[in-house]
Amino acid sequence: MEKLQLWLLVLTGLSGAVAQSDLYGQVFVFPKESADAHVILNMKNSGPLQTFTVCLRYFTDLTRPYSLFSYNTRARDNEILLFKEKPGELSLSVGGEAVIFKVPENKGTSTGWEHVCASWESATGIAELWMNGSPLPRKGLKKGYSVSNQGVLVLGQEQDTPGGRFDAKQSFVGEIADVYMWDRATPIAAMQAANDDSQLPPSIVGWGSLQYQIKGYVVLKPMLA
Question: Which GO terms describe its biological process (predicted)?
Fold first, then answer.
């Protein structure tokens, strides 16, 4: 735990001041393709992860590959990565290994915003993906693995090293909101609540008390839809 706190202090010293805000009704706007625009999120103190759930909302018209959620450590690339491979496909990586989920075309919403939740547990290796409150067929990867707690969490870019080595052609262009992460496999009711923007259980990353650092051309704005 002390090592994690020291790592976060070092990261803060290198990257600048950390803001903490209730971002309800706000979004991070990533206005253009870039090799440096990103947002660093701080996680609340947690040990190595045996389970996790990540939920977020995004709005984009990109058709090329892009990163939605990237968590990297000094020891391993793509410790956790939620990545849009192409229209109709989302991948979840754990410990550098990926599974691909096929997303039916009718899973979209009338506003253009998409809500995704990804969950994984070490004991079984089962990975789940929910799109707009509906589950997709479950996959399996990295059974018995433990996710390191000494990493860097980034929105808007896919990391090849912690906090760096970004590729503009994998950058996110659009809007991201309502980012949450839990250190457990979140019950179905909680995933549906996240999609409905309802009351949520305590989290290690929470939109209502988010600690973040904006780097490059990223703008915090009210949600339009």
Answer: acute-phase response; innate immune response
